[in-house]
From TrEMBL:
Alphabetized SUPFAM superfamilies for the sequence: lambda repressor-like DNA-binding domains
PROSITE patterns, alphabetized: HTH_CROC1
Taxonomic source organism: Actinoallomurus liliacearum
Pfam families referenced in this protein's UniProt entry, alphabetically: DUF5753 (PF19054), HTH_31 (PF13560)
Name of the protein in its database record: Helix-turn-helix transcriptional regulator
Domain of life: Bacteria
Domain HTH cro/C1-type residues, every copy: 20-72
Amino acid sequence: MPAHPRPTVRLRRLAGSLGRLRTARGLSREDVAEATGINKATLYRIEKAKVRPQARTLAAMLTLYEVEPEEQRALTKLLKDSSQSGWWQAYTDELPEEYSAYIEFENEARSVWNYESLYIPGLLQSEDYARAVIPGGMPSLSREEVDRRVQVRMERQAILDRDRTFHLWAICDEAAIHRAVGGPTVMRDQLLHLVSATERPNVTLQVVPFDTGAHPGMPGSFVVLQFPGDPSVVYIDSMAGDLFLEEEADVHRYTGLYEHLRAVAISPDATRQLLTRVASEYSARGGAGDG
């Protein structure tokens, strides 16, 4: 049987907003069905992003929920844009569904808070680092699959230039900059690439130094994606699989965790100094470790 099309992030955001608006008005789906004539099963599917509502259906819901005109226009635009495909759609047959969904969330976000315990954050990886780290973490990939993953990672980074309203705040453990992925030359170039990236007005980078000792980010990496006018989403990539957390309590917990990491990490200026010093150490090691 043909696979069901995946809901776009815009459709998910619209669905989530409609569910919250109905709940805020104290209405059940039965109440909405009685007031608008919209089938209760259809309402359920709309709120779960399983179907796109028709324009007149959306208008009836927004009128019933007494939504302000400005928010009505924003939600109507979400519906209009919800069927649009992004550049990543060309790769969806080759990427895990969760990763494709993450890329779409990332592309829609206005800010991304990314903590990495062992890796350089993906949006800040050099191509040579990505080419070394991807097969290192997924040794079963073919060379062609690695090439496609690297290409996707590089295309993701275009958001840093394409959208000046987008802001990346990245924090990584110091372990990530000392793990010689690809050898000393690759790591030297990667660290200098990070120094250059921090010159962008929409990129902030911090490192949690070794002398911090134990800290709450040690169990693993996570990303908090924040959207204009919509609740944040937490993404966790682990050995057990990818996970999206959207419950308010979960988002609050990871947001607080990120704030703690931001407080214990060294400043962006001190981070640049550390990166420059470690890059010089890799240079001193030279090609001996690259062979």
